[in-house]
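Just scan this pair:

***
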Amino acid sequence: MSGPVLQMLGARFNIEPFFFSSSLNWIPSRFQEEVRRDKGDHITVVVTFLRSIGDELASVISPASSDATKIDEILNTQAPLYLSSRGGCYLVLDLLSIHLIRDENENNNTIISFHHTDPDSKSGAAYLHERIRFAGQSVYWQHIFQSSPDPTFVLLVFLWHAIYSWDEALEILYNHIISMEMRIMKSTDMEMTRGLHFIRAHLLHYSSLLEDMRNSVQFIISTPNPSMNCLDEGLQTDSRKRLEKECNHLLIEIQRLDKQLQMQGQRLENVMNLVFSTVNIKDSSRMQELSEAAVRDSAAMKQIAYLTMVFLPASYIASVFGMNLKQISDDGRADFGLYIAVALPLTFTTIWIIGTVQSKNFRVEGDKTSFWMRLGWPLLLIKAKLGFKSNQEPDTILLEEWPASRRGP
């Protein structure tokens, strides 16, 4: 509708401009105006609800909104949420904007609804007119309309339409989450994890929309029709109780939908934790393999170090005896027996000194020993290996601290 048309409509029914501004900008709102005691008033209810459309209807979605549904783009909870399960569909936000004029004259009761430009919208004027007509033909609503002249019950029919759309959309979302759980059980693709986070962000936004709808229903309960005061007290009381009853039914359904949203959010969180736990377990397995490889390499390096310690004195003596010096032999050549006589004691002495220095944590009867006591480690090691024990408490000997007792894997 153009600006002049809105002005004409507002002037004809005395509608506040805020009704059109909140409807055009999709601002959830609820307010009462033009209150006339015992004569009537105007109430406005603007809510945003969730509905589903098929994948073949994606042409009605703007390119910007379509791009926003991809997980590569900036997360936009206002954009349609694409669900790939069961052939693919979209969960889109829709607008329900109702302005109700309640008057003491039943012929002056008027409902004005505002709709956005989506041609497939299930909140369109033609579609809602058909829904209201079908509701009026049902036995339940016929009895309500006949027993009470309050036009607020017609407004409740509009809200029930939004509740049904919510229920259908959340059922589709629930099936999609189940399919994603089954896929994630077989795979730990991080792209799917990002998709779960994307859906969870939309669920948080949907919870706020349900809260707005709950506030709208409570607003209807707390805003009775002033024109009902001129009716009989019995009819007025009966109509009031019936209105509260129907509003409580709406509140119960909204609470059920909210619980369903919370349950789906918890399932998403559980699946996301499962993915992270699986990734952590795999990382831990890789780290364990790396640690085992490092231990094997360390043991090999220790063996090389021990071999070097054993052969280093002999190599040194061989280098010395390889010199053509008269101080070693008169003819410049050393005797093999002399080499053995020098190399073996030097090798044993080297092992003994290194073992003494390395055994810093050697303990006897729970107390650390001094350097001079550690010089006797070969005797204590032989004693421990043979199983000799003294009459006193057994000595605490940390054999793993001795280089000679270390073994590779």
Q: What stands out?
A: The two ends are 84 Å apart (CA to CA). The chain is about 60% helix and 10% strand. Confidence is low (pLDDT under 50) at residues 58-73, 390-409. The chain has two domains: 48-92+115-286, 322-405.
